[in-house]
Amino acid sequence: xxxQWKGVMPAVTTKFTADDxxxxxxxxxxxxxxxxxxxHGIILGGTLGEASTLTSKEKECLLRETIDICNQKxxxxxxxxxxxxxxxxxxxxxxxSLGASGLMMLPPMRYKATSRETMVYFKAVAQxxxxxxxxxxxxxxxxxxxxxxxxEELLKLDNIQAVKESTRDISNITRIKNRFGDRLKILSGxxxxxxxxxxxxxxxxxxxxxxAFPAETVAIYELVQQGRIAEAIxxxxxxxxxxxxxxxxxxxxxxxxAEKATGIGSxxxxxxxxxxxxxxxxxxxxxIKKGLETRPDLSKFKLKTAAL
Length: 308
Description:
By secondary structure, the protein is of the alpha/beta class. It has one domain (about 5-300): Alpha-Beta Barrel (TIM Barrel), CATH 3.20.20.70. The chain contains 12 helices and 8 strands. The chain has helices at about 25-35, 55-70, 85-100, 115-125, 140, 150-155, 170-180, 195-200, 215-225, 230-245, 250-260, 280-295; strands spanning about 5-10, 40-45, 75-80, 100-105, 135, 160-165, 185-190, 205. Strands 1-8-7-6-5-4-3-2 form an 8-stranded parallel sheet. Strand 3, helix 3 (about 85-100) and strand 4 form a beta-alpha-beta unit. The protein is globular. The two termini are about 25 Å apart. The mean pLDDT is about 95. Belongs to the DapA family.
């Protein structure tokens, strides 16, 4: 599928049953809720997807099911996060053979690669597939930054096309635009900076809390695209306490609690993750409860996306 790197692309969670099996029925409920809200793509196998705990067979099952549910309506992108170059190439080839629309790629995992090693890694994978690639640039969490000089070299490969911008530096969006124009598409990767990023020129939003609140997330994007910034800010101010659940070491548990509260997910996580308890659980529950009680009426914005 040919597509553009733009719009709201949920980094979806993986649904599990109480006995730690894939819950494909509940997974389908959530994917359909995303599609009904008007998202522009689905991203599998990120941190929220608990990909590091999934087997290859489970990843294949999730990819096949998502492609089937989406039925060409939106692109299905899978994350590549591997320890070795050979492993990343194998994953990329497998994803392409199964029908993925594109790849999101992290730098090498568990090894703090040098700039040269990181570029060689990205290039080797890009040259092994025809799929379009979005580089995930998150030096805060992964300790490897893909600099503009590195992108200058990487963009010699046509299928490296986008960046999930998670440096937490809003001005970096302007630096990218000044240097590369539209050659490198930018999707914000930090929920709490998404509106600001899109106002500064990011083409889209790889979102987390969208997993629980798809319509509100899409509404913010659509309002920004229409230049209705004040209205987007109105929703965003309501959303921010919930969005802050994404910038937390327990983001998976937090977002799954929110998904359960909105009826499109469950709290089941895979060990070593455990459900929240005690004061932290109460804190998150209170944020979600208040968010639901004050949830904005999106109908007043008169947007045309499916769920609005």
